Amino acid sequence: MKKALKIISINIIVLFAIIILLDLFSFIFINTSQLISDNFTKPKEKIDFRANFPVYKNNIEAGIFYKELYKIKLEYRSYFEWRATVFKGNAINIDTNGIRSTIDYHPAVQKNKSISFFGGSTIWGFGVNDSSTIPSLFSKNSNGEYAITNYGEQGYRAFQSLQLMQINFINKNLSDIVVFYDGANNYRAINERNFSSNRENSINERLKGMDQDLNGVNNNNVEATKISKHYLYPTRFLLNKIVNKFKKSNEIDIEKFRLKHSEITDSLAATELLETWLLAKNFTESKGKLFYCVLQPTFFSSNANLSNYIKEGINNGIHNANTYKYYNLVKNYMKKDKYTILNKNFIDLSSEFYKKDSIYIDFCHLGNEGNEIIAKDLIQHLTIKNN
């Protein structure tokens, strides 16, 4: 009996030793790989490759932007999910509310009106300095009477902007004019729920095992006692990477499935965008303010010339000509009784930059020249609509 217990004990010890060694090996392998990657790739990428695109007239200035971009941290915020933390740089400056700086090009002019811009990274100003975001260039090309705030955030969909606006202004004064600049982020993946963000799935993964019952008592004891939950993370991480290497063939199938069911996904995307705009319009106008919804241009909707410098990135990404076919549904649905009320608020810039070159950084982000054209277009449209 003692001999059997001894054998069992030794086997258990050996088993745990193997598990510990396996996890240690995974940990060392991951960190060594990262160290090698950092040492051999980072020196070559001190300036992001995009900074050398012909869309930029000043490659050094563009390089500073990308260097600072990677230093920005995001934190979780209830309801609208994430917001950038405070950042102070040469190209990018963000305050405690996650609001990026907008340059006032007419500081001596009295501000008689206020305008707020909401949207994703395009309105936030991906790829350009504070002085060249759409809101800043709106200031530059207007007469200076507007106090301008840029509420854009990277990756935001229209409904997140709506949540942000409502939370910020339920008990505060809303700007005289509210502009929602949307479209590029509102495409719908087949595994996403309606009115969700593009990070919902990753957030759900992090929340697994954190459930609570109706009485508020934590029910994750079973999950917490799993050894793999705590002690096998490096191994699981490494195994997932290995498994994902063999999943590339499935990605093609997923894309085929998406194309096959594009009518459903496109309809959901178009409906979600229009419903969000309706809610934003009702909220804004209930406060006695003006609301405008802008369908932004993308590389595909504007039929821009296929520049060689972004051709590879576009062809290999999830954004392609099929992704933005839902724009056609947005415009068609605007003719329906429910959405015709939006026509007076609607500004269609989706086909801007027709056949132009060296305007886009990628599938939707614009350089300085493109942002200035959009800013001028917005000023012109708002002037017409307000007269």
Shape-level CATH architecture of the domain at 74-193 and 261-386 = 3-Layer(aba) Sandwich
CA distance, first residue to last residue: 96 Å
State the secondary-structure class.
alpha/beta
Subunit organisation of the chains: single chain
- Looking at CATH, which topology of the domain at 74-193 and 261-386 would you report? Rossmann fold
Unreliable spans are 41-45, 221-228
What report would you give on this structure?
- With 387 residues, the chain is of the alpha/beta class.
- The chain has a domain of 246 residues: 3-Layer(aba) Sandwich (Rossmann fold), CATH 3.40.50.
- Helices cover 46% and strands 10% of the residues.
- Strands 6-5-7-8-9 form a 5-stranded parallel beta sheet, with helices on both faces. A two-stranded antiparallel ribbon has the order 1-2.
- Helix 4 crosses helix 14, helix 5 packs parallel to helix 11 and helix 11 crosses helix 13.
- It is elongated.
- About 3% of the residues have low confidence.
